[in-house]
Inverse folding.
């Protein structure tokens, strides 16, 4: 593989980490969804480049799924949903933006140290891809922890899944069954979540998960 | 592949997967809950029969399915509990329908989901591909999420949401671990499907890059450990047990936790096959002890009967993980026996609890008293179940707990101290709660309840028999598995 191929793959994977950071500081729902769409576009580009560089045409399917489903359909659907629910203005976050970003940087440093050492004798593309993918996974998790709002938790979860797809495509020759199933599971997960969101709307008139806690009552 | 397809109708391993899958479709299409409830039982029974044939004739492992001593234990136990729970469920849901908590449409969905869950769990146990195993466990998670939320109350939705979020994060970590295992296997086995086939992996594991395997195991342990319900990743478990229908609590405790544990064990075997990789034992021992002691203390503060037994499941899964973490023929044997006994006992307890909550119309422990007087059969059934789960002789769990404790004393006396401490704490809590529930002045409704006692007492009978006499072939079989686990 040429040096250019390697550089471009790194740039795209690194771009995904960067967009994950952008997700962390969004304070408006519409902005969050737009950045998530960008996240999916970068993922799709990264996967498509892997497909070209590895000469693995089946990866184009994964790229197409990411582009159509996660960059277009899901953000649009979620956008309509949040407008209808009237929660598009602001996002409740636990802790400030500053500490969250610092924590995020720490997580990226952690995943770099762990993965670069563990995968030292894998080929360079896979090694750095794994390190970036783990960063995206951890940042997605951080987002799920620091957001109270159900929709932004869902976005956090989907960005986490994007990191997994990046890892799976970086692993050269990984059987297709896994990629398809990951994409498919996102779809199922989305349906499940959609059902939940509507039920939550039906009952609470809010999608703030914090509101759910009030109903816990004495059922501990 | 063609030989595999040709063998379809006659291969019991395939039947175990195909029967629930077809039943799920059929039950989704069929109206009328009485008929579907019976068909659900029938399908579960047929699956169990197919599982029993694995004991005698064992099909050869292929690229897709594999059958060895280890997963036969899980399959037979799982399909048996699946069958008895479906029988309990048939009597349970009739009452829920009369009480208006579920509609016929809900029930159709419920039965289809029940069989989908069975399908996913059997697939996870029988597949020879670690990627397919991951997919199957994910399907099992999603179906249980939907079933936990089926009552659509505030609490049920919250429980399902929490379960979904924590379960997804766990399953995501497990996928990352699976990818890392593939990465470790690829340079040795080569690209493609073969590098995810478990039998090939374990054969070549000694040549894998140990660093990559170590990181992979951490992710797999945390990921699947979330599904096992190990502290501190257990937060979903009590809610999911408490808010869903009681048959689902029985299946969760009796089956799904075991399936997740099975995944952990498979990867532990992979680690053990590589001499340079870290030993997975200490991690499992730590998580196991932590869960045991934490759950033991949490048992004292429960006010809800289903949450009480959910924490007891955390306690026992901790104990089982501890035993497998210790390793060695004796501890593995004890862990395996304890897992079997716990599945049988805990699902029996949930059968009793299901009928009790229906009779009393509440899950609050303070409003459930004097059961042995108001509902003698149910009350004594519960007493027997709790006595068993607390580890008193002569029941089966006494023997397995005794083996775990004595083998720990023999090898790591220092570890035995916190172990015994945790067991005693949990024992005290269970006895305290039991005396409140079973004896004293009966409170609330004393109306008789239409319950099916057969599954409850069948399980308790098995646990009692195992405590008194373990058949020699069973002992030999479990010893083989224990050796396999290393």
């Amino acid at each position: 593989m040429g040096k250019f191929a390697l550089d471009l793959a790194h740039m795209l994977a690194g771009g995904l980490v960067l967009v994950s950071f952008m997700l962390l500081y969004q304070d408006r729902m519409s902005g969050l969804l737009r950045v998530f769409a960008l996240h999916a576009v970068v993922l799709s580009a990264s996967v498509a480049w892997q497909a070209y560089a590895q000469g693995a045409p089946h990866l184009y399917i994964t790229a197409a799924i990411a582009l159509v489903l996660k960059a277009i359909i899901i953000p649009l659907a979620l956008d309509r949903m949040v407008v209808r629910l009237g929660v598009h203005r602001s996002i409740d976050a636990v802790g400030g933006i500053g500490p969250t970003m610092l924590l995020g940087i720490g997580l990226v440093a952690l995943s770099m140290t762990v993965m670069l050492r563990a995968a030292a004798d894998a080929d360079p593309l896979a090694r750095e891809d794994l390190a970036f993918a783990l960063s995206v996974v951890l940042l997605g998790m951080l987002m799920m922890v620091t957001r109270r709002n159900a929709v932004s938790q869902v976005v956090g979860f989907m960005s986490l899944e994007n990191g997994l797809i990046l890892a799976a495509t970086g692993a050269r020759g990984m059987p297709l069954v896994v990629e398809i199933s990951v994409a498919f599971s996102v779809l199922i997960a989305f349906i499940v979540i959609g059902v939940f969101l509507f039920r939550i709307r039906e009952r609470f008139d809010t999608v703030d998960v914090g509101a759910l806690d009030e109903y816990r009552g004495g059922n501990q | 592949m063609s030989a595999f397809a040709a063998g379809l109708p006659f291969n019991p391993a395939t039947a175990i997967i195909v029967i629930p899958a077809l039943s799920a479709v059929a039950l989704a299409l069929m109206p009328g809950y009485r008929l579907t409830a019976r068909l659900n039982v029938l399908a579960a029974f047929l699956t169990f029969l197919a599982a029993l044939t694995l004991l005698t004739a064992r099909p050869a492992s292929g690229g897709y399915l594999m059958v060895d001593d280890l997963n036969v234990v899980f399959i037979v136990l799982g399909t048996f509990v699946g069958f008895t729970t479906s029988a309990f469920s048939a009597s349970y849901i009739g009452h829920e329908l009369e009480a208006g908590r579920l509609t016929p449409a809900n029930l159709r969905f419920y039965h289809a989901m029940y069989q989908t869950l069975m399908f996913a769990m059997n697939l996870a146990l029988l597949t020879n591909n670690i990627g397919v195993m991951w997919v199957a466990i994910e399907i099992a998670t999603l179906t249980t999420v939907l079933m936990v939320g089926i009552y659509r109350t505030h609490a049920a939705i919250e429980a399902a949401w929490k379960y979904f979020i924590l379960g997804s994060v766990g399953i995501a970590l497990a996928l990352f671990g699976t990818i890392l295992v593939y990465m470790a296997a690829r340079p040795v086995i080569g690209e493609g499907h073969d590098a995810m086939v478990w039998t090939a992996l374990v054969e070549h594991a000694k040549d894998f890059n140990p660093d990559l395997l170590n990181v992979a195991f951490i992710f797999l342990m945390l990921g699947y450990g979330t599904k096992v319900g190990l502290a501190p990743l257990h937060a979903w478990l009590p809610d999911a047990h408490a808010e869903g229908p009681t048959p689902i609590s029985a299946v969760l405790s009796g089956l799904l936790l075991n399936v997740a544990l099975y995944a952990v064990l498979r990867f532990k075997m992979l680690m053990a096959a590589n001499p340079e990789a870290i030993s997975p034992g200490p991690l499992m021992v730590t998580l196991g002890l932590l869960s045991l002691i934490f759950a033991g203390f949490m048992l004292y503060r429960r006010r809800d009967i289903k949450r009480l037994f959910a924490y007891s499941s955390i306690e026992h899964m901790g104990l089982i993980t501890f035993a497998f973490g210790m390793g060695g023929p004796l501890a593995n044997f004890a862990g395996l026996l304890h897992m079997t006994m716990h599945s049988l006992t805990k699902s029996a307890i949930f059968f009793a609890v299901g009928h009790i909550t229906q009779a009393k119309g509440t899950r609050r422990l303070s409003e459930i008293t004097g059961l042995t007087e108001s509902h003698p059969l149910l009350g004594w059934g519960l007493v027997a179940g709790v006595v068993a789960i607390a580890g008193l002789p002569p029941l089966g769990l006494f023997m397995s707990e005794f083996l775990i404790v004595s083998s720990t004393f023999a090898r790591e006396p220092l570890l035995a101290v916190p172990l015994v401490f945790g067991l005693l704490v949990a024992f005290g809590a269970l006895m305290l709660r039991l005396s409140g529930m079973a004896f004293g002045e009966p409170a609330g409704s004393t109306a008789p309840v239409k319950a099916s006692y057969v599954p409850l007492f069948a399980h308790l009978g098995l646990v009692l028999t195992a405590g008194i006499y373990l058949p020699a072939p069973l002992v030999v079989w479990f010893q083989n598995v224990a050796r396999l686990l290393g």
In short: Residues 1-9 of chain B have pLDDT under 50 and may be disordered.
